[in-house]
Amino acid sequence: MTAVPADAPDVVRSAYAQLAVTDLTAARWFWVGILGFHIEYEDADFLCLRGTDELTHHSVVLRRAAAPALDHIAYRVRTPEDVERAARFFGELGGPVRRVLKGKGTPGVGDAVRTIDPLGFPVEFFYEIEHGERLIQRFDLHRGAEIARLDHFNIATPDIPAAYAHYTSLGFGCSETIEGDAHELYAAWMYRKQTVHDVAFTCGAGPRLHHLGLATHESHKVLRVADVLGSLGKQHHIERGPGRHGVSNAFYLYLRDPDGHRVEVYTTDYYTGDPDHETYRWSVHDDRRRDFWGNAVIESWYKDATPVLDLDGNPQPVADSLLDETAAKVGADGLG
Ligand code: 4SX
Ligand code: FE2
Prior knowledge:
Layout: E1 11-21, H1 24-34, E2 38-42, E3 46-50, E4 60-64, E5 69-77, H2 80-93, E6 97-100, E7 112-116, E8 122-126, E9 149-157, H3 160-169, E10 173-179, E11 185-191, E12 199-203, E13 208-215, H4 219-231, E14 238-244, E15 251-256, E16 262-267, E17 280-283, H5 299-303, E18 306-307
3,4-dihydroxybenzenesulfonic acid binds at residues 154, 200, 213, 245-248, 250, 264, 266, 289-290.
């Protein structure tokens, strides 16, 4: 596993995302009924959701709001002292740092620190969180896509080298990249837990949230959720796939929730925990990189993403991308 730089908080994993949604009833149909998340807590404003394998309070929080947005992504750190280390680390970077005391922020989460990171994203770091009932063998309660856990955040950001540098300074390793002829970075996948990623960067206008990657155990769950949406006449929620990624080797399906937030149902990537694990580099011209079978990527997948909020709940300004992966020639349609 990658060592943590001396001044950085020890990040364990991508832990949860809090999304603003406009209609909790519609969101519940999608996230609970279709994806199979379990409700750990709900009130008039919040829905806290947990996958079947997750022992902590939630991995997705939906907050009722006037417009769809990302409130924050959150990383769990190893000890309470790492929450303090996060406050110092981001304070020195010059961004706003806000302490959110237990009971004042997201339900179930203890004392936390929120910041706007150098990439413009609202990010929370926490150690303490309530635990929930073990659902791993409550097969009687499993349903829908049987989401087991949150796997990763994918963020749209205009400057991939800057994102790579920031997450490297936080002790993240890099499992895979997409690179141009001069090794210019189009995309990168970075991890703390021992999988392909906790966070990945898609080159695009940003800061925006590209998607949440949600792990299920078996590829037939991915196929089943597509079949169910078709049966319900809700096939417009399917955006891309099912397919096999080149990067990560995962089997995937991208869906859009009722507010347009993108989620990926994701399964069977690989172990990256050895200390000398090497980065696997894909050429941007290889049409297997994003779909191993060479299926073209729909343009909305590259272009659409969720706006992100600052710590006061106002939309963050968005900057245009430096590189355009859709312009890289890979085949007849150039989308690859
Ligand atoms: O489209 S890619 O094959 O590059 C890809 C996208 C690989 C892994 C992911 O989680 C993802 O969202
Ligand atoms: Fe993903």
